[in-house]
Amino acid sequence: MQSLTFTMPKETGNEVHTTDLKSRDILIETDKYQIGSESGKVWLAQDSTYYPKERARFYHNLMFYFYTMPFILADNGIMYSEVVALEKDGISYPGLKIAYKANVGDSPDDEYILYYHPETKKMEWLAYTVTRGQGSKSTDFHFIKYNKWQDVNGLLLPEELIWYKSEDNLPTEARGEPRVFTNVDIDASHMGADYYMIPDNGIYVDE
């Protein structure tokens, strides 16, 4: 597969995310702004100051990363280990911890735990830390429930994610409405490098 596109309906309008699965260049399109990456350089384009420049790098591939679990966890530079199972609603979910070697990606100190259903083997929970800008590992895990899956070109991809509140590094109750993904397309054709190029009104966020 070469490219992935999905739409996230939001109160402020739809976000359409397109990613080149080989180069990992990304384009996020909305009515108010665009965020993209061109050969790894993140850019922001807008006609006003609607979207904060300092958040663009953090956000540009965030939803792509969550959406492509567990496939993304086969990237180079990852270290795996087993962890204690997550006990939730009478089910014991086995867990695999994912950590990164130094200098891998934007936030190599981030850690993830994939919890899967003991019978179906499907991923059902993701625990993750956020370390960008902190300069060290965090022990505070956030939780997402992979609540619904959909078949797209023979692949199981998320249809609905639910963020959860947590206490003592365990999920407690749903936080807000589910994040729904529509108009999902993943296929063997790519958009071409020009598709991800910075537009005339864009700025590189790290300059």
Which secondary structure elements does this structure contain, and how are they paired or packed?
Layout lengths: L2 E6 L6 E6 L5 E4 L3 E6 L2 E6 L6 H8 L1 H6 L10 E11 L2 E10 L11 E5 L6 E6 L13 E11 L2 E13 L2 E5 L4 E2 L1 E6 L14 E3 L3
Antiparallel strand pairs: 1-2, 1-14, 2-3, 3-4, 4-5, 5-15, 6-7, 7-8, 8-9, 9-10, 10-11, 11-12, 11-13
Number of strands: 15
Structural category is mainly beta
Approximate shape:
globular
Instruction: Tell me the fraction of residues in β-strands, as a range.
Output: over 45%
Overall mean pLDDT stands at 90
* CA radius of gyration: 17 Å
Biggest sheet features: 8 strands, antiparallel
The DSSP helix count reads 2
* Helix content, binned percent: under 10%
N-to-C order of helices and strands? EEEEEHHEEEEEEEEEE
Oligomer: single chain
C-alpha termini separation: 33 Å
Low-confidence stretches: none
